Amino acid sequence: MKFRKIADCEISILGFGCMRFPVIDGDMNKIDEPEATRMLHYAIDHGVNYIDTAWPYHGGASEPFTGKALKGGYRDKVYLATKLPSWMVESREDCDKYLNEQLKKLQTDRIEFYLLHSLDKTRWPQLKSLGVVEFMETAIRDGRIRYAGFSFHDDLDVFKPIVDDFDWTFCQIQYNYMDENHQAGTEGLEYAVSKGLDIVVMEPLRGGKLTKRIPDTIQNLMSTKGIDKTLAELALRWVWNRDDVSCVLSGMSTMEQVIENCRIADDAQPNSLSDEEFQIINRIRDLFLERMIIPCTDCRYCVPCKEGVDIPRIFSIYNDLNIYRNSEWAEGYYQIFLQPSERASNCRECGECVEKCPQGIGIIEELKKCHAALSG
Fold first, then answer.
1. pLDDT per residue over 160-178, tens digit each?
2. What's the whole-model pTM score?
3. Separation between Cα atoms, residue 192 and residue 160, nearest integer Å
4. Residues 52-79 as b or e (16 or more Cβ within 10 Å = b)
């Protein structure tokens, strides 16, 4: 296992994301505890020392299970990360309430890496107004948490001000070869690093979408080029190729995935991908993008919509649905991360966005298609 730094801690480059444990009978709230424990212990025994969970994972079952699985000496072998359920905070007192409850669930007296979960353009201002900065500073002083960070799912112009607004130790961003210019992206990553933040990457495989339901064109490319690496290995190595990424989280669901990811992390080095491998990854990206339906470039000329509809993000989710063929993910993202006022159903067909679109997209009709496909 290779290691890199977060603050003064030696962190395994592979982190175990505790949101995709194996489950019983397809019920995401029922973790297969014997198998998940076996997987977690294998990973730790093979060098993984960064364990990432959160309040809502597995319907609230992830934190209690993780605390149980880390008994028997495993807790002292790892750095534990979890997240304040930001959307549930209504007062300064709530911050302490949820953190103290998480400490009980995880059966520990400290959390090394504590994140504000999924900050965006509305959540960070709300939390600040409720006293979350004083809460984090107090929790660090009294030892309940060691380092403060945040996870992020919004646009670059939202990301930079959040980076600048507090003395964060680290941040957690979505980053992979399909998302260089999406959310924080490469520019945001490099900006955070320039401000002294360490980087934890989530979704290196886009929730498995870069390895499942693969188009024949990509499978044929891999066969023709005689690539001896799996798509998962190429994607993970693409992120680890950067020396400014401290840890890459993988939400592993099977023992086979744990074994493969630990094997890859044993020798993944920065600046180790060959020119040919970069070319192949770029070609894979292009083949995925050929499945896009709406030719939106995210230029954002169409926003702000006077009704609040987030047109570029809706088109991005819809395109992802067609690229990766994962309706469960797309529908969930649409319902969770967009407010009702931001969804396509709030369009009043005024036509202002159509007049502004430099790509000539029939936005009104496309929004109808999007809503029909994403509203479940």
1. 999 999 999 999 999 999 9
2. 0.85
3. 8
4. bbbbbbbeebbbbbbbebbeeebbeebb
